[in-house]
């Protein structure tokens, strides 16, 4: 797999393995199961959000669209074959991240989420584009 030489276009990409890159990609380390609570908790930790983060989808959207919180702009989310996943929660998480990527792109900036998995059993994963350099 090729590494990223620069941050690719904004978006949510699927990769089969973590890229070999010198670029700092912050891991959104979701504990199993990948449900709403665990996804939001992992995002809050990755973004170093304050303790009063609302732990809801609206608060996550607000933070992803606020440059104050977005020191890093490259993130990974790994989903193993064995990890139980709440498909609705993951789909919402990916939609929110995708909307944020689009908003950053419209401002001439990049935001990236690389979903690292070989899973094909979730429709929200099947609809992700594969990173073209992978």
Number of domains: 1
- Record the strand order, biggest sheet: 2-3-4-1-5
Largest sheet: 5 strands, parallel
Q: What CATH first level would be assigned? A: Alpha Beta
| CATH architecture name | 2-Layer Sandwich
Helix content: 25-40%
Number of strands: 5
Instruction: Please tally the helical runs, counting DSSP H or I stretches of 4 or more residues.
Output: 4
Q: Which of globular, elongated, flat, extended, rod-shaped describes the shape?
A: globular
Description:
This protein is an alpha/beta fold and 134 residues long. The protein has one domain (11-21, 28-130): Barnase, Chain D (2-Layer Sandwich), CATH 3.30.370. It has helices spanning 36-47, 57-64, 87-106, 123-126; strands spanning 11-15, 26-27, 74-78, 112-116, 129-130. Strand 3, helix 3 and strand 4 form a beta-alpha-beta unit. Helix 2 packs parallel to helix 3 (87-106). The longest helix is centred in the C-terminal third of the chain and has 20 residues, at 87-106.
